[in-house]
Amino acid sequence: MEGKLLRYDVIKNILQTSNNSPVISNLGPTSDELWHITKELELLPRERNFYTYGSMGLCSSIALGIAINTNEKVVSIDGDGSLLMNLGTLSTIGRVSPDNLIIVACDNEMWAQTGYQPTATAFNTELENVSKFCGFKNTFKCTNIDEFKNIFENALKIKGPTMIVAKTKETGEFPEVTPVEPEFTTYRFRNSMLNNNEAKL
Questions:
Q1: Burial group, residue 66, by CB count within 10 angstroms (0-12, 13-18, 19+)
Q2: What pLDDT digit, counting tens, does each position of 23-80 carry?
Q3: Which residues, in sequence order, are CB contacts of 130 under 8 Å at separation 6+?
Q4: Cβ proximity of 10 and 106 under 8 Å
Q5: CA 5 to each of CA 28, 83, 148: distance values in angstroms, whole numbers, following the listed order
Q6: Is the separation of the CB atoms in 34 and 44 below 8 Å?
Q7: Which end of the chain is more exposed for a tag (fewer CB within 10 A), N or C?
Q8: Does domain 7-193 have CATH number 3.100.10.10?
Q9: Alpha carbons 25 and 77: distance in angstroms, whole number
Q10: Is the pTM of this model over 0.70?
């Protein structure tokens, strides 16, 4: 697979178009890039960013918990490696069927940070199909940024749950680790939800 998308561009577009929606990011480079892009766009601290450091496989599970407690759109930026570690979350999302949840799976077909080992999506596993048969109302796959922009803009308008598989490529470089403290992330994020009238928490 020759991916045409950069995860950085995907995340940047999400921040530019999702207004103040909660954004939950997968651990490692995904959370690092979310923080750096938030800084680049002069949106720090953006209280609606939830960085899931140390929680591999749980990004979309956390996003599900948030989605069923608010009327706002909730965006999970997950990865193929993490989703494959916890495929049960896709089945649970399909069963609960929150209409405000969007999962963006950045699928590079590998565990890049630990040595570029191939994941099952490098072979026969299609996360779009898995999501569809788990009960997601909308499933999409894209390989370039223009496709992603159109699909994500539409996803913000329609009822979910929605899965967007963004086929990405690695650059071989990882962003600088960010100065994020998990305890403060939780405190800041929780307060931002409690202070919003649309939240049901």
A1: buried
A2: 999 998 999 999 999 999 999 889 999 999 888 899 999 999 999 999 999 999 999 9
A3: 87, 90
A4: yes
A5: 18, 19, 9
A6: no
A7: C
A8: no
A9: 5
A10: yes
